[in-house]
Structure formats: C-alpha cells, structure tokens
Amino acid sequence: MTPEEEEAIRREFEAARSQGSQSQPAQEEPSFDLNQFSRIHHVVGVVSGKGGVGKSLVTGILARELARTGAKVGILDADITGPSIPRMFGLATERALGMGELIVPATTTGGIKVMSANLVLEHEDDPVVWRGPILAGAIRQFWAETFWGELDYLLVDMPPGTGDVPLTVFQSLPIDGVIIVSSPQDLVQMVVGKAVNMAAMMNVPVYGLVENMAYFTCPHCGQKVEPYGPSRLESTAKHYGLAALGQLPIDECFATACDKGTAESDLPDGLLARAIAAITA
C-alpha cells in the first residue's frame, strides 16, 4: 500500500467516524435503580479473568462467613449461563416466587438470600441460550426487581472474563469493590491483569486476591503438595499492588459439600478470614 492509499483510507475512516458520532451520540450506560422495598448497604463482586478458578466457591464461603458474623447477606448469581450457587446451598429444587411485580429470592437455611437463573428455570439443567441484551436484562431484574429487603452485603458471583455481563454489573450496580480469584498457573498474571485492568477502567476498587486450588495435603503422609507448581499468590499480588487475601486448598470436602448442597454447614470455618476483614473494614 502506497502512502497515498494509506492517507485516503485514513481520511475515509475519519469521515465515517465523524458522521457516526454526529448521527448517534454516545450515551452512558444507565444505572439500575433499586426498588423501594430493598436496601443494600454494600455490594461486593467476585471476579476472575478466566473460568474454572472457583469464583462460586469463594462467593459461597464469603457469604457463609459474613452471615456467621450476624450480617444480613444475599448472593446475586450473575453467572447467568453457568449458575451453581443454588445447588451449593441446597436450593436446587427451589424456585423464586413472585410478589406483585417483584421477584422473591430463595433463602438458605442460614438466612442467605439467593437470586439465580436456575431459580427461574423449570429445570436446573435447562440451558440459558440468551444474547447479551437479554443477559443484561436478567441482571437488571435480579437487582432492581427482586425483593431483597434489608441487606448488609450483597455478593455478586460474576461470570468469567470481561464480556457483557461483567460490564453491565460494573456499570449499572453500585459495586463497592471486588475480590479477584486466581489459581497457581503460568497464565495467572495475565488473567489477573485483565480483571485488575477492567476494575480500574470502571473505577471499582479491588479488595485483593484469593488463590484457589493452591495445594492439597496427602492423606497418607500429611505432606503439602502443590500440583500446579509453587504458589503465585504473593508475587502476583505484589506485581499488581494488591492484598493477598488467602489460599484455598484442593479438598474433597469442598466438592462433597457443594455437590450435596451443604456448603453452608459443612465447609470448614475461617477459610478466608483476611478477605472477610478486607470487606468489612
């Protein structure tokens, strides 16, 4: 391509962009107003740059530990296409109810309120095949049209990545801060960086970093084994100027409790004490 051809393309591009900005002025994403029957004091997002690192597990642990302090807690399961919170808390057969124009969330045995796509589907294994605008509409309903009542903390279990739903949550909900979940693998700094940079772009504070699947303890000799290599929690947290909020091991009891729906009662205590301290500070 000659310099003349490059210049012609540049002029054409600039003209098209100018015409587009004049005909369709940019509009800010509107925030979702909470209904008059709900009052939520703090909203905390649980995010990651990739899937499969355990955001739902971390969300469930945080909700459980916050509730045990006496706080009123709710979970908004924003992972619309892959919801797992209801099953973790024994709500797999429950369904959200309607009260006038509002949705009434399901409530766990410990008093945690939960709103999730699986609570409005006929069967929990029905696929959610929705495009971005419909997903954003679901988030609006889960926030603005749900009867949350009075909550001290609402935890938002985000889908992985930086797509439509995380963007909608960041732009439309009053997020106080986020906790980033990672795992000890070579790609960890890159995927954590995506989450950190998105939070920065949205002007949302980051409470810190939790590393999941960090190690397991051999049941025979008691030795601590790191199947994915040495922990990267401290180095990654330092690299991005974050607080290291703790590690979670690979433990059979985690999977068993989540599968049985007894995460609220059967998980060990004090798993993420530093994360709880950061949220409640």
Question: How would you portray this structure in words?
Answer:
With 281 residues, the chain is an alpha/beta fold. It contains 10 helices and 12 strands. The protein is 37% helix and 19% strand. Strands 5-6-2-7-1-8-9-12 form an 8-stranded mixed sheet, with helices on both faces. It has a two-stranded antiparallel ribbon with strand order 3-4. A two-stranded antiparallel sheet has the order 10-11. β3 and β4 form a beta hairpin. About 4% of the residues have low confidence.
Task: Give the SSE order as H and E letters.
Answer: HEHEHEEEEHEHEHEEEHEHHH
State the major sheet: 8 strands, mixed
Number-wise, the strands total: 12
Structural class: alpha/beta
C-alpha end-to-end distance: 59 Å
Radius of gyration: 21 Å
General shape: globular
Count of helical regions? 10
Q: Name the quaternary structure.
A: single chain
Which runs of at least 5 residues are low in confidence (pLDDT < 50)? 20-29
Fraction in beta strands: 15-25%
User: Would you tell me the overall average pLDDT?
Assistant: 86
Percentage of helical residues? 25-40%
Spatial order of strands in the largest sheet: 5-6-2-7-1-8-9-12
Can you give me a brief rundown of this structure?
With 281 residues, this protein is of the alpha/beta class.
Supply the key terms:
two-stranded antiparallel sheet; single chain; alpha/beta; 8-stranded mixed β-sheet; 281 residues
